[in-house]
Amino acid sequence: MVDLSVKIGKLVLKNPVMTASGTFGYGAEFDDFFDVSSLGAIIVKGTTFEPREGNPYPRMAETPSGMLNAVGLQNKGIDYFETKIYPVISRYETNVIVNVNGSNIDDYVQLTKRIEKLENIPAIELNISCPNVKMGGMAFGTNTVSAREVIRAVRDVYSRTLIVKLSPNVTNIAEFGVIAQEEGADAVSLINTLLGMAIDIKERRPKLSTVTGGLSGPAVKPVALRMVWQTAKAVSIPVIGIGGIMNADDAVEFILAGASAVQVGTASFINPVTASEVVKGIAEYLQLNGFHSPGDIVGNIKI
Ligand SMILES: Cc1cc2nc3c(=O)[nH]c(=O)nc-3n(C[C@H](O)[C@H](O)[C@H](O)COP(=O)(O)O)c2cc1C
């Protein structure tokens, strides 16, 4: 029979399916649709030390086979997270992972230290790839020197599982995966959104208040898949595949490209039960093809 469990750093996931940060709230929003504890992990909204209002509206635009967003890490900060959100989400019977963001290295470090004190958060996803903030975010993740600095500083103060989320807005993403590995990350996740733009030709003005924003959804899948494949070849730590996963077949493609686990993002806006369907579909694929665990097919393509 099929055993779906996978290991990422010190984490044991009951299956390789997680939710992508910013697309699944804090999980509670989806509780009415399915048992969110049935997922391998829930990665909650991007969190910062101080509260943030995010960017002005409009900050979403639909595009062919995708969407652009410029939410800009809207969240109520770590104090609110500790007192109001944590008590609710720490009851889930799965791994709850916080997506950590900052404007400078000290921000990232201070936030990480606070999260390490929360017993039921077994891992963080270090977001050095947000394209929608003026300071920090993608600026860290698209420069090899600053990427190394921030990963090192966070690793120094964090002993649990550290996942580093990489930006696709670079020429050679594998290079950043290698840096994360060298600095002690337990895993890398990729991709964050691709920088894009849309214009309203009637108004002759950009559709987003920030002019540019992050592209996600099926439109980015081939790019994400290529980047996962390139990164998985370059590192020995687990790679978590993200980008346009709409169903189990898409997830299997990412695993075959070298991902040990996957995240479902934009798809949850269209069909809120996508992540649970992906869990079932991966199990069916493995069973049908005579495999016993997701590990049997990681990077298992004939080239
Ligand atoms: C509305 C929205 C908000 C997002 N917020 C975050 C965030 O706070 N932190 C983060 O690391 N990624 C964030 N992302 C990126 C997703 O987690 C994911 O990496 C990206 O959307 C690609 O996956 P997808 O095509 O399956 O959506 C956000 C994406 C969307 C669409």
Brief descriptors of the model:
303 residues; alpha/beta; TIM Barrel; 8-stranded parallel β-barrel; 4-stranded antiparallel sheet; 9 helices; 32% helix; 21% strand; binds flavin mononucleotide
CATH topology: TIM Barrel
- Number of contiguous helices: 9
Classified by CATH, the class is Alpha Beta
Q: How widely separated are the two ends?
A: 28 Å
Low-confidence segments, given as residue ranges, are none
Q: What's the main sheet like?
A: 8 strands, parallel, barrel
Give the averaged pLDDT, no decimals: 96
Could you say how many structural domains there are in total? 1
Task: Kindly report the name of the CATH homologous superfamily.
Answer: Aldolase class I
Helix percent band? 25-40%
Number of strands: 16
Q: Which small-molecule species are bound to the chains here? A: flavin mononucleotide
**Backbone shape:** globular
What class would the helix/strand composition place it in?
A: alpha/beta
Strand percentage lies at 15-25%
| CATH architecture label | Alpha-Beta Barrel
Please state how the strands of the largest beta sheet are arranged side by side.
3-4-7-8-9-10-15-16
The value of Rg in angstroms is: 18 Å
In sequence order, what are the helices and strands, one letter per element? EEEEEEHEHEHHEHEEEEEHEHEHH
